[in-house]
Every structure is written in structure tokens, then in C-alpha cells.
Design goal:
The structure holds two protein chains of two kinds. Chain A has 13 helices and 14 strands. The N and C termini of chain A lie far apart (about 50 Å). Chain B folds into two domains: about 80 residues, Ubiquitin-like (UB roll), CATH 3.10.20; about 70 residues, DNA polymerase, domain 1 (Orthogonal Bundle), CATH 1.10.150.120. Chain B has a five-stranded mixed beta sheet, with helices on one face. Chain B is of the alpha+beta class. In chain B, a hairpin with a 2-residue loop joins strand 3 and strand 4. Chain B is elongated, with a radius of gyration of 17 Å. Chain B is built from five helices and five strands. The chains are: A alpha+beta, B alpha+beta. Chains A and B meet through helix 2 and helix 6 of A and strand 4 of B.
Chain lengths: ~290, ~170
Amino acid sequence: MLRRFRLEEPGSIPEASALLARHGETARIYAGGTELLLVMKEGLARYERLVNVKKIPGLDQIKLDNGSICIGALVTHRRLATDGLIMQHLPALVALEKNVANIRVREVGTIGGNLCFAEPHADPGTLLLALGASVIAAKGNDRREIPIEKFFVDAYESALADDELLAEIRIPRLPARSAGAYLKFGYLERPSVGVAVFLTLEGNAVREARIAVGCAGPTPRRVSAAEELLRGKSLDEASRRLDEAGAAAGRASDAISDLHGSKDYKEHIVGVLLKRAFTQAAEQCR
Amino acid sequence: MASLTNRPHGAQTMAISLEVNGKTYELEIEPHELLLDVVRDRLGLTGAKRSCDVEVCGACTLLLDGRPVSSCTLPAFEARGKRVETIEGLAAGGKLHPLQESFIEHGGFQCGFCTPGMILAAKALLAENSNPSDEEIKHFMHGNICRCTGYKKIIESIHAAAEKLRR
């Protein structure tokens, strides 16, 4: 059962942040509700007011701007899985979005809502970390850019202030001979572990390697210990070091034992997925 | 209209207009009312079922402007100005929809509890892909759970319906 709440429907970001400032913790942004309404129905969270930001114009755009792919917070998973610009520039994101939850959640759930809810067992944040994304936080007429590494603070907690909105996600265009890959594994509805790898090749060498692990612990995180084992190496040597990198990523993943698996189990799966994601990304860089 | 029960004084209400199975309804709702409850309790269309209640099983699937949604977790205000399709609206002129026919002909259901959602999800699939492969059917229908059929006959039913619709 969903308890009674009041609905506010601001028509602009300043109006929305004013409402959030006025009502503080008794209000929450509604941008699709596929996560929020679940916890409200369970009684795990109570809000007197929901601020529906879906009436604010311009938050549902996908565009290229100044070398970045800009994705409005209200873009649904389904649109990301089917949008021409995203398919052209970010095939790894398309592959991820095609497999978020199920078709009904993808139709209604938004990328901004997904990130702000900061549910640990979610997919997009992990790949965004590997892709070097940032988010634009908006409050009134002010904007600030937050690197995605700084966005996830803890389980269900983002770096946004109470009266800030996530307006946009910015992903730098991939350099030449670059690709990302995201793989996940789980046996419940949500993934137990997700691993994202971003590579740039130069000649036969791994010029850049960014690796992120999600779902294993409270927040998705970069695992630089694993990156350092691969960066600057020849592809052959990097491939030989994947076991080592996988183990390092597992240790750095901050895995916790929960319903989705024990710490050891998750760390092992991180290693398996890292190898596969590296191989997939390397093939796509060619 | 029944079921406007126990509304406290001062509760926020919203006047909404929506089209359900081709018919326009003007309703007064509260923001927290879920589309599933409005369709079942206020419009009397009980084909969609509340089952898992957490967007996983698909028994409450309805089509909103042609796209599948979990009506158990979608506020009714989201249907403002939109077109809702329920299983009750599929048959036309006393004739079942090809998907309904095919589910009967190919044993695509047993207890029938998942069937309204299953058929509506399949309708959305066939609207965007008139000739899906087994894999495409499995991927699209992954969020609709059936505990009777083992899915094989559902996949056969969808293939058969796709063929009828392509004719």
C-alpha cells in the first residue's frame, strides 16, 4: 500500500529547488518512481510530499555538446537502449541499458532517478565510473559539475544537497581505439556484481584502463589497484595479468556479504567478470 | 463512483482524464492512488493482477500509450491524458485478438493468472518487432513470470500470433 502524499509539480528547476529547500527531508524528488515507490510501499521510507520533476522542460534531452554526450536526468532506460546517438557513441551503455531490470522498469525508470536513488545493486553508475562521466547538479540558477567518483557517497546516498537536482549526465566522447564493456552476474532480481572496463589502445599497448566494480559493496567504485596492473602494458602482457588484476579488483571492491552472495564469492566473480569485460572491450577497440 | 472511501478532509485531489480501452474517463484521484487499483477497483477491469507488488512478475502489466508498465507501482496520475490498454480491451467485435487465440491454440496458459500481463507484454513486443526470434521473445518477456507453462508454449503462442498478425 502506498501512503498518502502531496504531489508538487514544479515547472522549472528554481521552483523545484525552492520546494525542496522549503520542505527539507519531508519531500523527495519523483522522477519515475521505480525505486522510490517500492520503498514507500514497503513503509521503509515516508515522505509527505513528492516533487514530480517530470514537468520541467528540457531534462529529457540527449545531445552532443563540446565533446561530451549529455544525457538529461529524465531520459528513461528504454530510450538509452534505443537512442541513435547513444548507439553511435556509447554501445556499452546501450548493452547495459537493454538489460536493466525488465522492460516495464526500463520504460518508466529514468537514469537520473537511478543514480540519485543510489541503490547499491544497480548497473549504470558502474559503467559511468569507467567512462569518466560527471553529473551536473542544479539548484536555482546555479550549476556545479560533480565527477561521478564523488557522486556516490554511500548506499542510498548521493553527494547532492537537499535542495539540489541532478540535471544532466555528461560522458566524454570516446577517443580513437577506445571501448567500454559492462558485465554483471546475479541470481536474484538484481545483480550480485557488476564490472565495467574502459580501454584505450595505442599501437599494441593499453594506453588507458579504467575499471569499476558495482553491486558488491555499498557504492560502485573505481579499482585503481587493478587499473595500474594493466595500464601501459602491451595487450599480451595485460592479458597475462588479468588474473592478478581480477584479484586486485576483488580486494578493492569493498564487497560485503549479503543476500546476493558472500564477500569471497563476490570477490571471485569480480575477477571472472573483469577478465571477460577486458577481453570484450579490447576486441571492440580494434 | 465507489471507493472514494475514507478520504480525509483537505486531502489533495487531482481531476484526470484518461482513455482506457478506447473509452475516455474523467476521474478524481489522489496522488498516491496506483494505476492498478484505479483500473481494478474504480473501473472494474480486473484482468490485471496484483501479485509480487514489486515490479518483478508482470502480472499487473498494462500498456500505457502502447508501452508496458507495472501498474502496481505506477501512480494513476501518470496516465493523465494517456491511452491505457487492459486485457479486457483486446477482443474486438466479439472476436479475440490473435494473441488471445494463439495462447488458447498453443496452450500458452494453464492457471491464467499471468496471462493478461503476458499477452499485453507480447502485444508491445509485436508492435515493435513483427517477427521476433526466440531470443528476442525471451529477452522482452524476461520480466513476465509464469509458474505453469515452463514458457515454451508461451513462446510458441507468440510466434503463432506474430505469424497471424503478419498475414
